[in-house]
Amino acid sequence: MNIEFLGSNGGIGGTAEFNPGSTCIQVSEAILVDAGTGLAKLTVEQMSKIRHVFLTHAHLDHICCLPLFLANIIGKNNDGPVTIHANSSTLDALQQHVFNQVLWPDFTRLPAHEPQLLQFNTLVSRQVITVDGIELTAFATTHTVPTLGYAIKKAGVHTVFAADTTLTDALVAELQRFSAVDHLILECSFASADEALAIRTGHLTPALIRQLLQRLEQPPQQVWLTHLKPTAVSAIVSELEPSWALVSSH
Ligand SMILES: [Zn+2]
Ligand SMILES: [Zn+2]
User: Fold this and answer.
1) 148: DSSP letter
2) 75 CA → ligand 1 middle, Å
3) 229: CA distance to ligand 2 center in Å?
4) Which pTM was predicted?
5) What is the pLDDT along the chain (250 residues), one digit of tens a residue?
6) Are 118 and 108 in contact (CB under 8 A)?
7) How far apart are CA 137 and CA 126, in angstroms?
8) Which residue, 71, 109, 184, 250, shows the most beta carbons closer than 10 Å to its own?
9) How many angstroms does the Cα of residue 78 sit away from the middle of ligand 1?
10) Angle at Cα 217 formed by Cα 188 and Cα 156, nearest 5°?
11) Which of 68, 78, 74 is nearest to 39 (CA)?
12) Measured between alpha carbons, how far is 19 from 129 in angstroms, rounded to an integer?
């Protein structure tokens, strides 16, 4: 992959061979997807270069480092504001429950003088955004809150990150739209024995992933699994297909 997972766990903690850090993907020096605890691995210098954060959804494991990251770079963003790209549900949640002047300052109004720190950009499913020559296509997945996955075309490599989701016809239909996928990254939160819990919480298991892959007319070159709950890692690892790989964070 030509993108880097700073965090790839479905929770905090974890084991030595499966590094801790919740979802945060560094697509380029200036672009992140999600802002989980993996973001904390960046230096302040690296953080100050981030200009775009694409969020999948509002759940804490995907946004918890966003407020602290923004506080770190206040006054250091001389190249312009950080743009948070997300669906309207996610942006509403951030404004109502995070940047609400109680849990954290409203950074869309701070600082009072230039440079502005933060701006929001509302995305809809199937919208395509190009930043620094990298094309990101948002697509709806099936989770407990409105969620977007992202298909990323960077330097000729096509990576599809399906975010938090469970298996539905709608998800299959969205994934069928992408052709010549080099890397398909799927969440695998629970072991197959916990399928009822996985479905109820909008997640996948190895058995559900097998069903999903069988339904894709054009299989991806490589399947990667991420977002394993730390307590489910050993059970999931025992169920892996030889052709699947686990995403590790650094
Ligand atoms: Zn979630
Ligand atoms: Zn999650």
Assistant:
1) E
2) 31
3) 9
4) 0.96
5) 999 999 998 888 766 556 679 999 999 999 999 999 999 999 999 999 999 999 999 999 999 999 999 999 988 877 889 999 999 999 999 999 999 999 999 988 876 666 789 999 999 999 999 999 999 999 999 999 999 999 999 999 999 999 999 999 999 999 999 999 999 999 999 999 999 999 999 999 999 999 999 999 999 999 999 999 989 999 999 999 999 999 976 5
6) yes
7) 6
8) 184
9) 33
10) 75
11) 68
12) 31
Ligand 2 centroid – CA 76 distance (Å): 30
Give residue 56 CA to ligand 2 midpoint distance, Å: 9
| Both structure tokens of 19 | 């590094």
Burial letters for 130-144: b for 16+ Cβ neighbours within 10 Å, e otherwise?
ebeebebbbbbbbbe
Kindly list the structural domains of the chain, giving each domain's residue range(s) and its CATH number in brackets, ordered by start: 4-246 (3.60.15.10)
Question: Which pair of tokens denotes residue 161?
Answer: 């990150």
Distance of CA 41 to the CA centre of its chain: 16
Give the largest CA-CA distance in the chain. 55
Question: Which residues have a Cβ under 8 Å from the Cβ of 87 and sit 6 or more positions away?
Answer: 57, 122, 123, 124, 125, 138, 146, 147, 148
